[in-house]
């Protein structure tokens, strides 16, 4: 049951094969036995069970609120949740309980979803490993899968699972791990430079970054306001469309959301792809791209070609400047957004009492980790009067060029772009932490952040297992506000590749599944 | 008229005249039910921190939502001050750390303000003679929309600061006047005229004592034919009378300083109304770099005129400049002209009638009801009524006619 898709479990709820409370309890039990993954910062057991109970009442009355009613979900810990701690994995907000719900959280609750808890992340979503939060790193569930264990040969006998585990990617690693380990049916992440798609790729789940402005950011604690988008992590593309349908649309509390109403959609089963034009941007053949992923990428392109789609190589010439411009714009907004954490109104406050200024300084030194402080420092440098034109304005101009690259390609008739999501499969934690956060982020965001610079929708679709038995995903980038087209293509691709289901001991013990949709065929 | 000879000044300077230059930055609180970017109420003297939304306290994750009424007030004010209204203006963040600025930045319009290039005509009498009035004009550089800050109360004995955020986020119009004035009296007359205009429009209550109108004066002096001198900024001016005093004091201080061979620092000074002088403000951080950047959470503010108004548009969602222009009330200068024309009174008397809220209306109704000659009524108002009201600390609005 826990391994079912959201749609399947919704049907089971409707048919009474399982009750919301049973479902919630099973998820909570699985969260407990997979605690070592460190996917959750807060498990809201009590409120979740209460919400499940209320959902159960609705089902009994025959009046469920819709497909999400009674579905256990998890939310990244940078979305405000009324009454449940919101920490951003930072000392600055440890113990902070927000008085209000983020719009997306409110919408999920209004649709009857059951909020299991808040998931782990890099501090203030700054990172690409989910290794840099105060609550410790998130472990990739695939580290404990049969598939990975079979393929990875321990270097020595003394080396056990403890040192061999791989990272989830980030910064929404907790949400990706939660969906991947079946502790929830869907999760919210956030995506500023790839923070939803990157961990989705490493954890073998679907990760959707919608068009900027399609989903409200109200209540999402910002990283970069002009690029942040709430992200959706699910088991399959269809489920992502369900979540999108309940979350998208204008929010009077977020002036950057679209004015038009959003019509939820169901995804058609594409049978004919001959009218599709798939663009392969050559610049995404980036330095450091593993040969394994490169092979997978061209195999995927062939798959479309063989099915009759038009596959064309395209060029996005300014891509190579994207990551450095992203860095400038990101840190500048970070410097600004973090200014509010001064210890006065909420959050951590230092005991330092010499003066207001020394209290500010001590509060921020104690409250933020090195990564956050480093970004604040460089952001403030870029915003200085004498540097503003040279860095910030220039980066903004290049951002426009990057966005125009995409416009041109789509105008030339390309429907969807196909690229890798990550350069390689997930790195072992011990290896990952050898490099600093800045270097890691620059490498790991390279294939994903351009979509944020341009505000475009993009999705990671789990594609195959690597030689090490770890998930590898590919990314589709679509036209602005053309989520339906993007997801339709992604769904077709998903069906072709038949990505294998993760085999976890913990899940087997908990899941006396009614329907186990074990997939045997593998793409690679 | 600012030739001063100090006993210590060298003879080289003693005969060269000084030209004082005065520019003003005026913050007018917008009269609106709710704040510039949040739904909290705007009210003077409410219990501390009783009018604070999550956004005003800058709780993480909150976003600004622009208040239409504040935009309309700024457009009205811009039109009344002969400005060109920018059809597209932008919001920026201005950063500094202060206890009553919870976000660590103020949202303002640094790059492209809502209104630019206007002018304000004001009159003042020469040598305090009401009969000799001259009209002068000051250029308006720009009007920008921005957030007010909260208030800090320092308790020095207990060594603590108390913060009231009721005012945080209230809409302000910053009116920047070019340095076209040359003495305290001119500055005071210009501000008084602006105050009357704002009150007529209803875009601000503009009561200085309640902080709804705050004036900072930029003052410098130079010799003819020479570039402008180093200027100082005078703050803490809380009445029009003090504005005139503060500016004149500062002009005199600068002249004396220079004539004594000293230099003027580009500094911020506060007006001490008790001592009647300006004193340097403790400027702890020295020159601030405000690290301006575009406010990413607010799209550009787009205004329309009848020509550019899109066809299928919800009128609640757009602002039409022409529509506002057509509905502007008579401005004080027009009202005065009408009074002079209609009742045959002296121009200077029309100033007196408009100088107090409700007095012109009172005058008109007395003329109408008593059928007396307007000049007689004016005489009675000037000689008897106003002094009576003053004696009894009454306003004309409080008296029933």
Automatic annotation (TrEMBL), chain A:
Q: Which residues form the Amidase domain?
A: 26-487
Print the keywords alphabetically.
ATP-binding, Ligase, Mitochondrion, Nucleotide-binding, Protein biosynthesis
One Pfam family from the UniProt entry? Amidase
- Please provide, in alphabetical order, the Gene Ontology terms of the cellular component aspect for this entry: glutamyl-tRNA(Gln) amidotransferase complex; mitochondrion
Q: Which GO terms describe its biological process?
A: glutaminyl-tRNAGln biosynthesis via transamidation; mitochondrial translation
At the top level, the lineage of the source is Eukaryota
- The main place the protein resides is mitochondrion
Recall the GO molecular function terms of this protein's record.
ATP binding; glutaminyl-tRNA synthase (glutamine-hydrolyzing) activity
Active site annotation, chain numbering: 76 (charge relay system), 171 (charge relay system), 195 (acyl-ester intermediate)
What Enzyme Commission number(s) apply to this enzyme? 6.3.5.7
Instruction: Enumerate the subcellular locations listed in this protein's record, separating them with semicolons.
Output: Mitochondrion
Q: Which SUPFAM superfamilies does the record cross-reference, listed alphabetically?
A: Amidase signature (AS) enzymes
Q: Which reaction does it catalyse?
A: L-glutamyl-tRNA(Gln) + L-glutamine + ATP + H2O = L-glutaminyl-tRNA(Gln) + L-glutamate + ADP + phosphate + H(+)
Q: Which NCBIfam families match?
A: gatA (TIGR00132)
Q: Which family does it belong to?
A: Belongs to the amidase family. GatA subfamily.
Oligomer and partners: Subunit of the heterotrimeric GatCAB amidotransferase (AdT) complex, composed of A (QRSL1), B (GATB) and C (GATC) subunits.
Q: Tell me the function of this protein.
A: Allows the formation of correctly charged Gln-tRNA(Gln) through the transamidation of misacylated Glu-tRNA(Gln) in the mitochondria. The reaction takes place in the presence of glutamine and ATP through an activated gamma-phospho-Glu-tRNA(Gln).
- Write the protein's name: Glutamyl-tRNA(Gln) amidotransferase subunit A, mitochondrial
Automatic annotation (TrEMBL), chain B:
**Record-level Gene Ontology MF annotations:** ATP binding; glutaminyl-tRNA synthase (glutamine-hydrolyzing) activity
A single Pfam family it belongs to is GatB_N
What's the protein here called? Glutamyl-tRNA amidotransferase subunit B
Q: Start and end of every Aspartyl/Glutamyl-tRNA(Gln) amidotransferase subunit B/E catalytic domain?
A: 21-304
Q: Does the keyword Hydrolase apply?
A: no
Family statement drawn from the similarity comment of this UniProt entry:
Belongs to the GatB/GatE family. GatB subfamily.
Keyword Protein biosynthesis appears in the UniProt entry: yes
Question: Which keywords does UniProt give here?
Answer: ATP-binding, Ligase, Nucleotide-binding, Protein biosynthesis, Signal
Cited InterPro entries: Asn/Gln-tRNA_amidoTrfase_suB/E, Asn/Gln-tRNA_Trfase_suB/E_cat, Asn/Gln_tRNA_amidoTrase-B-like, GatB, Gln_synth/guanido_kin_cat_dom
Q: Which GO terms describe its cellular component?
A: glutamyl-tRNA(Gln) amidotransferase complex; mitochondrion
What chemistry does it catalyse, as a reaction equation? Answer: L-glutamyl-tRNA(Gln) + L-glutamine + ATP + H2O = L-glutaminyl-tRNA(Gln) + L-glutamate + ADP + phosphate + H(+)
Q: Which residues form the signal peptide?
A: 1-23
Q: Which spans of this chain does the record mark as coiled coil?
A: none
Native species: Cyanoderma ruficeps (rufous-capped babbler)
